[in-house]
Amino acid sequence: MPQHPAPDREFTMRFTSTPRGARLARRLVSHRLNDWGHPYTTPVNETLTLITAELTANAVRHGHVPGRDFRVRLTLAEGTFCIEVTDTRAEKQPSPTPSIPDPLSESGRGLHLVAALADDWGVSPRQAAPGKTVWAELRVRQQGHPLTDRVALGPTELDLLLATASLLRDDRGSRPEDASHGGRRP
Question: What pLDDT digit, counting tens, does each position of 85-99 carry?
Answer without folding.
Answer: 999 877 766 666 666
